[in-house]
Structure formats: C-alpha cells, structure tokens
Model the fold of this input.
Amino acid sequence: MSEPTLEFEDLKLAYMVRGTAREVLRGVSFAIQAGEAYGLVGESGCGKSTAAYAAIRSLPRNARVLSGAVRLAGRDVLSLKKNELRDLRANTVSMVYQDPSQALNPTIRVGPQLIESFTVMGVDKHEALKRSTAILHKVQIADPDVVMDRFPHQLSGGMQQRVVIAMALACDPKLLILDEPTTGLDVTVEAEVLDLIRNIRTEYGTSVLFISHNLSVVRSICDKVGVLYAGKLVEEGSAQNVFEHAVHPYTIGLLKCLPTHGLRKDAQRLSTIPGFLPSLGADLPTCVFVERCSFADETCTTEVPLWRSLGTSSVRCHHAEKVAGSPAENEIAGVSVEINRKIKPILELVNVSKSFHQGGQSFKAVQDVSLSLYAGETLGLVGESGSGKTTLAHTLLGLHAADAGGKILCDGKELLPGRRRRTLEQIRAIQIVFQNPDSALNRRRSVRKIITRTLRHLARVTPEEIESRLRSVIAAVRLTEGHLDMRPGQLSGGLKQRVAIARAYAGQPRVMVCDEPTSSLDVSVQAAILNLLADIQRESNTSYLFISHDLRVVRYLSDRIAVLYLGRIMEVGPAERVFDGPHHPYTEALLSAVTSTTGSTTSRIKLEGEIPSSMSPPSGCVFHTRCPRRLEGDICSTVEPPLMATPDGGVMRCHIPFEKLGGRV
Amino acid sequence: MARYVIRRLGLAVVTLFILSVVVFVVASVLPGSVGRAILGPFALQESVDQINKELGVNGSLYSQYFRWISHAIRGDFGDSYKFQGPVTDYLASAFWSSTKLAVLTLIIVVPIGILGGAIAALRKDQASDRIITVTGLSLAVTPEFAIGIVLILFFAVKLRWVPAGGSADGSIIQQFKVLILPAVTLSATLFGYIARMTRAGTIEALAADYTRTAELKGLSRSRVLGVHVLRNALLPTIAVLASQMSYLLGGLLVTETMFNYKGLGLLIANAANDRDIPMLMAAVFVVGTFAMIMTLIADVITAWLNPRIRFGSHV
Done:
C-alpha cells in the first residue's frame, strides 16, 4: 500500500495549565489513505479538534507534544521549520472550521481574501483572479464576480461556508480538514454543503479528515470512522460497520442517545451515558471508559485493554465480543399522556404580528400567526433561521411588543404586549429556557441564589417555605444539594442547562418556551435533558413551546408541530402527520434535508436559492420562489393560499389539495 | 459611504447648534451685568446701561442669541472685553499655537503607542508586555506637571538644550525646540491610553478565527499581521484618539501654564478669570466644533475600516 496522506503515530499531547501538563491526546494512532474520508467522532472534550489542529500544527501556545509523530504527505509535521510549515499549509493541506462568519476577515472583501490563497503559492495576480472565479464556480456560486465584490457579512451563512471551502480548495490540497463544517447551519444549508463536499471528493480525490459531533453527518460523508474518547481511539472501522455493528460500549451508547427512527417521548425514554467524561489530564491507568461502562468488571479496572481487531473493526475493549453479542439493553418505555383539547387552551395566539424597522424600512418578522397550546402539550416550532421562530417566542414573553391587532391570551385573559405592562402572575406564567446557559445564568451567583431569586421575586414564596420549595425544584431537575453552592462556571454544560431549566420551572409556569435548549450540548447530555423535560411535563402538566433546528429532537418531544416560513405559518398539525405526511412542500424539503445515521440514500429534495428577505417577501405564496412542487400557471406566484383546516384539526397553507400533498419520502 | 458621511454631517450640524445654545445660555446666566463687570461697582448706572447697549446685551435672550450666532457663523465673535480687539484674532493665534503642539504630540505618540500596544499584544504575558503595560499605566496616572517639571529641570535647566517654555515663533528649529518638551509631556500622558487600546484590539484580532484562516493559508507572518490583524486591531484605537483630540486642543491648561505656552487652554482659563464672555464663548464653541469634527473624522475612518458599519448589518 502506498504511503498514507496523514498518519498519527501514538501522538501524546498535553496542555500546560499552571505548570502541570494535562494530557488531551493519550496516544492517538490512525492513518488516512489517499482519497479516503476519515471521520473522527466523540463528545466535546474528547480531543477531536486538538487532533485536527495537531495535524497542521496550529496549536495553542500552551500545547506540548509529549511523544509520537504526525506525518502529512510524508513529512514530519511536528519538526518542520517555520517556513516549511508555511509552505505545507499553502500547498498541501487546508482546513475549514465551524463558524464561516468568523473564519472570513470582516474588513476585507471576499475577492482579495480568496485571491490571496492563490498568490501565496506564487501565482501572479491576474492568473489568481481567473482561478478565483473558476473555483467559486466549482463551489456552485453562480455569480462569482458579484460575490467577490462583497464583504463577508453581506453573504448568507451557506454562501460564506462555500467561500471558505473555495479558499481551502485553492491549493488543490492533498488533505482537507473539516472541523464541524456544518454545525450551526440550517438543515437545508447543511445538506447543500455536504453535497458540495461529496462532489469535491469525487472530483478532486482529496483525502478528508472530518471532525463532527453529528454522527449522521459523518456517516453520510466518511469511508472510515474513528471514535475518540478521553484522548484515545476506542473504536475504528468502516463507517458502515461502526454505525451498524458498533462493538465498543461507548460507540453503542452514543448511537443510542439519538432520538432516531421517529422516536417519541411517549414511546420510549432516550438512553443516556451515565457519568461524565474524565477531566483533562485525569489519571486514567486502565480502560478510559471504565467508569461509565455497564459492561465493566474486575479486568477492566486492572488491565489496560489493547487495540485489537474484531471482524473488520478495531476496538479497545476487553469485552467487545460480549458487548457486540448482547441483546439491546432493556429500553424503558415512555409514558403516554392524554392531552385534553376539548377544554380551553392555556395559551392562544390570535393573528399575532411583529414588525421591525430598519434603515427607514419596516418588515414583518412574524405575520398573522394564530396558534393554541393546551395544558401538558408540547408545540414544536420549526423553520430555517430567519423564519421568525425566536421573534415569535420573544413576542410571547413580552420581550418586545407585538403589533396592534393581534391578541395573546393566557388562560383566557389577554396579555398586554410588553412585559412591563403584564402582571406578576402573567410574567410567571410564561418562562423561557435559552440555548446557551453560559450567558443565561449569572456567573457570580450560586445555583442556590439563582433559584431562590425566582422563588422569592416571581413566585412570591414566603421565606419559611423557600428551603422546601428549593429542594423540590432541584429534585425535579435531578440536581443534588451538593450543586446548590456551586456557581455556573463550576458546572458542566448539561448541569448548567438543568439549572436554567430549574430557574424557569421554579415559578411553576404554565408555559415554558424552550429555545434550542439542547443545541449546544453533546448527544448524551441532550438525551438526558430531553428525558428531563418529558418528565417535568408529565409531573407538572406544563406546556412547552419547543424551538429547535434539529427535527428529530423536535419530533421526540412534540405533540403538535407548527412550521414557519418567513414569519408565516405554513402548517400546523399533529407531530405524526407533519412528519409522516401528508405535509407541506416546505416541511417535506426540510425533512428530506436531514441526514440519517442509517445512511439511507433517499433522493434529497433540493430547495433552490436562499430564503428571501422579509423586507421584500415574494408575492402570492411566500414559498413559491423555492417550492419544488409549484403548480403550473401563476396561481402560486399571485395568490397567497389561505390557511385551510386539515382533517386532523390542524391547518395548511398550500394551493395543492391536502390529499395530494406528499407523504413520507 | 457618501450617504453615511452626509448623515453624520447632518447630525454634526444639529449637535453644533445645541452646543452653541448651551454655550450661550451658560454665559448669559453668569451673575452680574456685563457693563457692571467692565466698569466696576462705582460706575454710574447710565454708563452701565450705555455700555450694555453698545455690546448688544440689553435685548431679550433670544435676540441676543440670534445676534451672536449670526455673527459667529461669519467668523465674527465680537470684541474681547479685556483686549478691546476682535476675539477672532486672539483666538486664531491661540488655535494655531495649540494645533502645532497637538500635531507634534500626535506625530510622537501615535506611532509609539500603536507599536507599543502591538508589541505588548504579540508578547502577551511576557516580560516586554508587562513593561509596556505598566509603563503606560504609570505615565497615564502621573500628573502632567510632574512629568513636565522633570523634563524642564533636566533638559532645559541642567542640559540647556531647549528653552523651558515660551511661544513657538521663529524658524522651524526654534519652534521645534520650544514645542518638544510640552509635546513629550503630553505624549507620555497619552501613550498609556493608545497602547492599551491597541493591545486589546490586537489581542482580540489575533485570537480571531479569520487570523487563523490567514495563517492556515500559509501567509507570511508579516502579511497576516499587516493585512489581517492590524485593520481590525486599530478600530478601538481610533475612537480613543478622537476623544483625546479635544483634550489636546483646549484641555491643556496645566501643560500650557507650565511651559507658558499661549494655546487655547490658557486662553479659555484667562477668559473665564477675566469674565471675558465673548472670548470665552468663542473659544468653547471653537473647541467644541473641533472635537466634533475629530469625532466625525474618526467615525469616517472607522466606517472605512469596518464595512459592517458602512453597509449596515445583514438581516
């Protein structure tokens, strides 16, 4: 076999923290052959990004290589001289990382930034310009000249990522490193970027190192997968094998955390991986996963498991045979709860609109939205970014005032627009859990203070009762008394989100708005939080307005789904029907964009173009400019379809009759 | 870009109007009649009324303001009570002196401050960073007169290289000799601010993803720093510079007194002491106008460097 493009040889790497070395990579070995796509998966903190940056030696100042080697195209990366390293970066390897809006220099036009990638290789300016135009065509940007004249902030996220990829391709690299390239992008954009990466692979034959926490995305791109845990590879094999016949308990755990296959809260609780990732530099003399493994026994705590082959995969586990052969763990069934929709809804939105003004123009971020939410029910809110989900949530909370003409009713009483004009009781009734608990919680307050403040000021609990209420709240979110005196900074992401949920829940709200509550969490933590939300709902009959870009998460928790596009409701209906069909063409496109861990290659419905600006929404049906099922004639582009009632009690905004709408793809 | 500048200019005109009203009102509510202030307590009331009429301070406040502003726009700020000559002449000479001092100060401090800040950022937490940061901070909190006196004692009294003070007249070299000590004094004070802002801006830019992108393109260190880092790093520095400009031109009472330098600071202080209202109003108005122009220039440069301002944010 010829020489691999990238090879890690027992790399041990540590970060120096206050004089002590904390090991991040504890001996990582793997190789990527020419033209191969290798996926490195694992939860945050497992060292996957560190490995990626080690491959091009772009490490933080406090990183120290303890032993081992990294070879890229035959060269020892870690011992290169500075100019040799520059040369390698300019000609042989490229990298794309998570947030494209940060990866481009905001003060320089796209053109010069791209041209620079060519001139650094010694190409003259004129030629560089020609090649830049060509490469933008390659990444499917239709009018390169226009894009090159723009500043990065004038492009959408998807376009920005295309430009970054174009820059990466400039040197026709032997190796392309992609570090979470689609995280934070909409599903539709993610699907396009993934298509692009696939095309590039077929066309250029570039080797790829793909880092992602999203297992489905890795599955859809990679030939080979390595699972990293606490700085060690625990399993490696072909993507198909690892995902379908995982043999390491950690890999199996990761796969089972995902709410896949249309799983719902009333059918089954999500599996979680108990415990936490060992902290950086912790002393791990035996199996790295031993503390969280349900198969662990005497041997696991005394002997270091060796790296060995098992069938077509390699694994680092004493009991891999047993694990692989054992039947699925007992799945805990969920509890289904009947929702009474005959009584009055808890929350009713009637023709709610919200306009913003910018640069002398006014535009509607939310238009004529009518929704109802019943006791104990979860209403999922779905749509691409810019569809008005968050605006609607904030309007509901009174964080900004809705336009005149609409009505928001809570328990039958009208809520005034704007939080200041609502009574304490009304404020208490609707609470929110934000995406990022880091910025939602006051870092200077202890958990106890954060929760008691809500109890005292919002719930008006008497001082005598506070202690007992505090106990019941933390019990409800499965925190222990030991957590009470900690500050948010001392807690892990999942625990912080529990505190944020506790804060929202403490005042016994009728409705909790959950705005992407699990988006910044690892899958195993996400599963635990979703279970928790389902439990709280069942115990307290709280209603949720659940916003997430992850459709599988929405499906797991939601009873009904509302689909938003450009601030307008496209359809509302029971979760089952919205997901399985018949559904709106927009919903259909959203669903087909979701990549699945099963690797089924269904033909994806492509949405043409970008989401239009709400400043100038399209005429007729706002979705007609991108609709794959637009009707013959001009009805779609001239007449806005009314919201029609569907047989299941929902609504649908489409000219196509309900019966003829698409079903499950 | 043009639209942005025009909008800012419009705002500037409005601010100037408000400033003129404030200056005028403050000057008018100073106690005592102007005529009485000039003629003294023993003058006859008729003489006082007479002089008030001559000075145009006997009508309603509104008509007085209108009279003052309509002249001021044409560059006529009336006559100084004290010197009995046109305010504009005295003001122009003081303004010119101040400008010379300010320009020399900037020529010294801006490159050194930016360089110092950038070096500190590149060597963050190392010895050279500590030295630059601590020096800058110490100089910023040391009173100007302390720095000035040390400089005078050493360079003017002991070494006799330059005069201890005076006006900047004569040949360029002569002027430079007079200006250098006060300019160095002011540079010492300003160095800390500029270096600190540049340091913060540079550290932020160095840690940004786009800098990493530039490095991973294989660009040379100098290109990464010069093209990708510097532009972003200087944004906060420019804002600070603009705010320090009005201090340089009108807030230098201590330095100007110490070096007996006849700039705007001294002029304002004296006018206030002497109740020379036309002089005071004109000087404050001119300094305010200048501060506004500087802010405007800083905003335009910032917009030029930062397209997100120039084109508004993407919705």
User: Anything to note?
Assistant: Chain B has a mean pLDDT of 85. DSSP finds 15 helices and no strands in chain B.
